[in-house]
Every structure is written in C-alpha cells, then in structure tokens.
C-alpha cells in the first residue's frame, strides 16, 4: 500500500490555481499546501523515517517465525532506514550476543530469501536485547533510559514503533506502562510514536471495547496499528486492484448478477503446540471474527472515494454494520460448528482434537465454523455469503468464490448438458491467482456445453517473489499508512457479529463433538447449511 | 516486405529439444532451432509449443510438464553489434521467469551486401517454484543482412504476438531520426534507452528523444533516469519534514557535481546530472530563462538559469575529478533562502547509496543514509517492465531536460 497511496487532492487556494483547475490543467501541488511536490511519481518504496522499534514478546514463536524474518527481508531490500535499531523485550535470560545468535538461527530457518553474510551481520548488530517482566515498572524505567541513549547513538529522532507480539492479556499492561513513562508522547519536531498490536484483539465485544478503551487512553487512533496479517497478503491486496482497477467486473458485482459468495479459509494443520491457546479461542474467534469478516468486507464494500486509510476503512465498516447480529434462532439455523476427530491428512494419520496436547479431553471448543450471513444493503440484499474455516481439513486452501447467477433463459434446449453458472474464484493461498469459469461448446457436430476456465496464477505470470504479509504490514506501520490495519470501530463491529454466536452456543446443549474426520471438509451439518439453499460448497 | 523475407530462406534447418531436469529459478534452454525466413521462424515458434518432447524429467526422475508459452509482452532489441546481442540475451534470459516475453534481438549486418536473414529460435524455461509447471518464453536472434536490415518493420511486425505490448530496447546509441526508428517506433508502446551511455555529453540525444512523443505514440524509459530513483527519494525525504517543506518554494541555487577525468567540456556524459536538475525544475514548476551552456575552460562545466515565480535560480553542472565512471553524479546541492533563513541541502553518493546532509541557518541537521546498490541492466529492464503505463513525471523531466539544453 505504501507505494501506491496517492497524495490526497488539494483544493485550489489561489486565483491562479483556480484558473488552472478550471482550464482542466493539472495543478502542481504547492509546498505551501503542505504537500511535498517532489514526492509525486516516485516509484521506489518509501524508506521509513529513522526510528527505534521496540518488540515485546521478542522471544516468542510469532517473533521468530514472522516478525524477525520480515524485518530482515526489509533490511535486505534496503527498505529499513540505516538509522534504525530494535530493542527486543523478553523474559528469558539472554544478552545481546546470545539473543542475536538465536535470531540468526530463526532467520536461517524462516527467511524466504536468505541474507548474505554482511547484510545479516548489519541487521543483527542493530538488535538489542532488554530483559524484563511486562508488568514490572523497572522494565519500562530502564527501557526509557535505554531509548534515550539509543536515539542519540543511532540518530533515530525520537521516533518509536512499539510492536506487541505477546499474549493478548499483556496488551493493556504494556500499553499502560508505555503511557506511564510518557513513551507515547509524540515530539513536536518529528518524533512519532506508533503501536502495532497483534490479533486477537479482544475475545468478545465487551473485552474488545475495554481493550480499545485502554489503548486509546494512551494512544490516539492514528497511532494504533491492529494487525490482521491476511490483509497484507498479496492476493488480498490485489482484490482491491481487481475490483477497482478493472472496468469489467465491478458492474457485475451486485445482487443482480451474483447468486452467492463463498469464502473459505481451510487449514490442513491441527493446533500444533498451541493447544492451550486454541482451547480458549476456537475457530470463530481465531479466524471468523478477523480473517473471514475482513475478506467479506473487502469483497462487499463500495468503492472508496480515495485510497486513503480512513476512506477504505469507512467502507469496510459499512459492510460489517450491514450484517445484522444473528439472533439465537439464526445462530442455530445459520451457523455450524465442528471439531475434528482423528483421521488422515496428506497420507498421515493424525490425532483427534481432544487428543492434542493441552486440550481438554471433553473439550467443546470448535475447530470448524461455517456460517451464512447476509449483507443488508442496496448492493447485496438477498445475496448469501457463506463463510467457512476449519483446522485439519482436506487441504490448506483459502479462496473467495463469487458464483454468478444462471442465465435467464435456456437457449440451448437441444444441448445434452446445461451451461453451468459463471464463477470467479480468487485464490488467496496456495497457488495465488484468479480463475474465471465459463461455458464453451465442445467441438463436434453435437451441441454439448462444457465449463472451461481461464486461470491466472501469480506464480507463472509473475515471479513468486512477493513480499510476505508481515513485510508489507510492518513497512506500512513504519511509514504511517494505516490502510491495511483494522480500526477500533471495525474490530468492534466484527465482534458484534461474532459475540452473539458465542452467546447462543453457551445456551445450547453441549455439541456432539467430534463431528468431522480430520482430512475431510468439515461436518455434514455444514453441507446441509448450504444445501438447504440449493447450493453446494465448492470442491477445492 | 514479408513476401521478400519469405523468399530469402528455406525454413528450419535444425531443431534440438532438450529434456534435462530444471532447477527452480534457473532458466534453461529447452529448444533451439534455426531458420532462414520469416515463415520459417514462425513455423519454428509454432513447433516449439506443439512438440511432445516438451515434457522434461523432474528432479526425482518423474515427468514434469513444461508449461505452454507464457508471454507478457514482445521485447524487440535493436543490437547494433553481435556482442551486444549476446549480452542482451543473457539479461533477457535471466528475466524469463519474472517477465516472460517473446524477445526478438535484431542485428543488422553487411548493409551493402545481398539481402539475407538468419535466425536462431530458442525457448527458455524456468521453474518458478517447487511443483509449479515450467514457464517458457521465446528468444529469436535475427541477423538481417543487406537491404533487409534497413526494413526492420517488415521483419519484426510478422513475428510480434498481437495484443501484447511491444517494448523496443535500444542499447547503445539510437538514431531517433533514422529509418530504423521511423519503422519500429510506430509499432512500439515503449522505447527503452540508456542515455548515460551516449557519446559526448549526451545532451543532443536528450533533445532528439524528447521529440519522440510528438512523432509517435510511444512511452520513453531511460535507464539513466531510473538509476536516480534513490537520489530522488533522498532529496524528497528532506522536504517531508514540515519545517523544511516551505523552503522548496524558495530555492535559489541548484548545483550538481559529476565525475570527470580531465574536465574538458563535452568529454563526460552529463545526462544523469542534467536529469537531476530537470526533475527538480519540472516538479517545482520552474521555467527556463537561459539554457545550460558549456563553459570554455576546463573544469568549468555547464551553467544555466531557471525562474521559480519571481526568483531566478542559477543551476550548474560541475565536473569533479574522480575515479568514478565519467558522468556519475557525485553531489546534488540545493540552497534556499526564505524570510532571511537559509537552508542548505547536500546529497552525496557513497559506496552503496547516498547520504543527505542539511543545515538550517548554519545549524546542522541529522544525516540520513539511503542504501542504493548500483542497479544492473537486468534490474533496470525488469523495473521498466514492471511499471507499465504512462509516466507523466518522467515525460515532464525529459521535456524539461530538452528545454534546458535547447
């Protein structure tokens, strides 16, 4: 997003500017209007201002697998400022040297493109370890002093990016301590302060509101970057280009032509070593509330007036608000939950969820959820959106499928086969790409119609050297571009849809779990959910 | 002309499919054949994709299906000499995974001899990732002897894949007023050149090139301009600071220093330094009062005068003795005065990038470093291909550069 965000149009201010505008001539942005005219047309990714990043939870899995590799890639591609440093905060007893060795090992394992020796050394030389407990005042007092020294030593102009890659329970504590030490205060001559917060942001509507309140006591909304890494994926970003950069699709993108939309986020993995976390979370909180509803809002939103962050988020928010929170009867009818039993995935026998480590043997946590929602607005009224996500499904596949309506009249009455409705499938992962299905006559004397596909795959049209979602998002946060981050009201709107589901489940009898075999596409009830409307889930 | 080409040869003379396993990311020659006529080349190109032997052995002995042709554009390269063609071929080969194209490398030869045509037809494939099918693109080396080398449109046009954009890459010194340009540019969407490689100071070439959009519907990409991207980022970043932005409207001097070896006027190509000035002047809506003129003394460089509102802005290009390649930008220096307050900005090249130093009323501001490793031709070509469509900023810079020279 960072490279493409245009400069917001500036209204004419002087008589000459008005005359030029009237004559249809493009007005140069004037330096007096607060717009840097040298910025326009620069094709390079912008390099963020010098700053210190402060990473809480630096010894955790997320930091090792995602955050450090993303930062290293940004360093490798010269997208981090040379005047940059990172303070890694964790509880484990490391010093700078041992922590850097630990990070180097993670980089070797998790980087999509390995750094050369020099680049890796330069990157690691900028990483400093700071030990402490998140709720200990002393940690923040010493951190404050350390940051002051670092600003002088690394010439980072008091710019600070806090990154909270910790357990969600630590978010309010850390933010509160940052506020106590005044580290959130932006300095007049530059010196921005931003905070990146990992999901899950709350576990229901009430807790999300409370957490937003705590965060916004310290930071302004413009300083807060709530990450949903799905929004940084190349295909998801391309969805906006696909919809609003092509003239032929948008006219079809409405209730008149679309029969229904399916969004699937399927994982073949189980809960791995995250049994305890997953027990408290479940599929609805882990994926439905964020990834699925974010994808839905991107698919369903109206074109924003500009590509500015708030314009984009305003439109997404309207979609979420157009989905009525489900009643208990609607949850019983339109939402299906499941939990995987043992089974076979990719030729390997795997355990049932209840047999996983740190999981209750009588767990009622859902590892699968499917739901039918309607977006009650002018564009989508009456078009169902079917969403599903699950663990230990037949394969890892994420996709948005727009199923178009059938042709209004069967013209080829003599044909042996009827034409199938057109389908547009946007594959998010793997094999990122876009597929369009349409009917074609089978060559021959008869009149057979067979569906054929036009298939665009990123991997063959472009090289697969696309940035990881975390690279995109971290760079955007450093540049101050909030387009791909969720706003407080968006988070709350999403919870207002998902919380009634949880509330209804609490009132229902204990589910008959497990109800789907690992390696399948979920419980039979999920099939019935969509078959009831005379439709089927897409085979993937 | 097409008929003439057909009459020149007897079609394919040899073909060699190659089935060795491919390595991910490593382009591999999968097909090579030869033809002596346009029809022969077209037939060979067709045969590549119908050949059953285009299944190759995978790394574990399994059979891997090679993908059908994958092309995102036609790339026509005018290679003045044979060695240029080979260098260009290796660059294009490296891009086959990222930007598969039908590439025609055209080398005119023996202009006074009889008309003849000799073509090597190749398919280069790359496996973009594990388990992905191979992506293949075509490369045709065309050597055109005698009169045929003077009528390039008749040779190139029948070999283009229609509906795909046509990029003409003209390494070396293009003759924009010549017959080749007149023949090829009407069918091109974009022409790619490297102004920093032109002879003398390179400035007359800028004037000729700036006239192209008026004659043809063609976009221009100059590697010399693309190489300055990080410089621009560095200069622009200085004025991202709200306190410094107003000074941009009050520039009163622009100086660019470039590498030279003996300081004699006209001996170093100054296209790149000129682009710096032209970029600033066009972005800031300046007008040319006096075009730049070369001084008569050694090491005097070039001087000109711009107008910014009511303010006159002297500009200079100054040679500095340096071991860097001649014409390389070493320093861009800006000076601004606003309400008695003075801003000085200096952007200096270092080994792997540029450093920005600035001072306001004599008070130094923190330095900023921008890493910018020197880009290879393959990087620049890839970048050109990746940013299709109109580049109004680049066009304005070229237009301003031409006005600064005229």
Brief write-up:
The complex is a heterodimer of chains A (540) and B (406). With 540 residues, chain A is an alpha/beta fold.
Provide structural commentary:
The complex is a heterodimer of chains A (540) and B (406). In chain A, α2 packs across α3, α7 runs antiparallel to α14 and α11 packs across α14 (488-507). In chain A, 35% of the residues lie in helices and 19% in strands. Chain A is built from 15 helices and 17 strands. The longest helix of chain A has 26 residues, at 275-300. Chain A is globular. Chain A has an eight-stranded mixed β-sheet with strand order 8-11-12-7-13-14-15-16, with helices on both faces. In chain A, strands 3-2-1-4-5-6 form a six-stranded parallel β-sheet, sandwiched between helices. A three-stranded mixed β-sheet of chain A has the order 10-9-17, with no helix packed on it. In chain A, a hairpin with a 7-residue loop joins β15 and β16. With 540 residues, chain A is of the alpha/beta class. Chain B is an alpha/beta fold. Chain B is 26% helix and 36% strand. Chain B is built from twelve helices and 19 strands. Chain B has helices spanning 2-6, 38-50, 82-94, 152-156, 179-184, 203-210, 212-215, 223-226, 229-238, 271-283, 377-386, 392-405; strands spanning 14-17, 28-35, 55-57, 63-69, 73-78, 101-109, 116-126, 134-145, 166-169, 190-193, 219-222, 251-260, 287-294, 302-308, 311-321, 329-338, 341-350, 353-360, 363-371. In chain B, strands 1, 2, 3, 4, 5, 6, 7, 8, 9, 10 and 11 form an eleven-stranded mixed β-sheet that branches. In chain B, α6 crosses α12 and α10 crosses α12. Chain B starts with a helix and ends with a helix. The A-B interface holds A 28, 30-32, 34, 36-44, 46-47, 50, 78, 81-83, 155, 157, 189-190, 459-465 and B 67, 70, 72, 97-98, 128-129, 132-133, 135, 229-230, 232-233, 235-237, 239-243, 245-249, 280, 283-285, 353, 366-373, 383, 387, 391-394.
End-to-end separation of chain A in angstroms reads 30 Å
Principal-axis shape of chain A: globular
**Biggest β-sheet: strands ordered side by side in the sheet of chain A:** 8-11-12-7-13-14-15-16
> Mean pLDDT of chain B, as a whole number?
83
* Number of helical stretches of at least 4 residues of chain A: 15
Principal-axes geometry of chain B comes out as elongated
Number of helices of chain B: 12
The helicity of chain A comes to 25-40%
Round the Cα radius of gyration of chain B to an integer and report it. 25 Å
Biggest interface found: A-B, 32 and 46 residues
Average pLDDT reading of chain A: 87
